[in-house]
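Hello forum,

I keep getting stuck at the same step: I have a sequence, I want structure tokens, and every attempt I make locally crashes halfway through. Rather than fight my setup again tonight, could one of you with a working pipeline run this one for me? It's a single chain of 216 residues.
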Amino acid sequence: MLFNSLYFDLDDTLYPASSGLWDAIRDRMNVYMRRLLDLPIAEIISLRQIYLEKYGSTLRGLQAHHDVDVDEYLAFVHDLPLEKYIQPDPGLRTLLSSLPQRRWIFTNSDKNHANRVLTILGITDCFDGIIDIRAIDFACKPDGLAYQRALSVAKDDNPRNCVIFDDALRNLTPARQMGFFTVLVGKNGFEPLVDRSISSIRALSESMPELWQNGG
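Reply #2:
Ran it on my machine without issues. Output:
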């Protein structure tokens, strides 16, 4: 199969989940919601889970039910010393740069956070662009509209020619239904709901050598 474009999730996909960065971002979400809603932390955590399951993200739930300043929220939850959690990854840079396909960041976060992460990893220029929450008008994975808008931004007319990488199974299920080739990152072994599962992006050359044989 010929693949023309690769869509990479950002957090816990391009760097290991063990870094703790996403856990720190979640903690900041809890703090923000507690200040906004004045609820006990246990209720905040429960409410965030409800929003995640119903809307795909905490932000979408807050937008649906509360008066939230989107810019303030995004700035607050991502206001972390990223260097504490992630470091430059020359090996990842070499791998990504060698791929013959077009490469996109496709994230439910915002472009500012994505740029900060990519800069620290040293892979900013490995991508054709960043498709963030604003670029898809605040639709977010796993909403099918998010994938349609991402394809439009990237000017891809056929998802069957695209591969999507994500650490969250819930984000890959609708993509597969649309025709994307789906790759679950951070899991070893067979996963029946996706097309491929790999331990990490760094294992891509061993797990999917066909990308270097038929792409571009």
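The two ends are 12 Å apart (CA to CA). If your local run keeps crashing, start a new thread with the error log.
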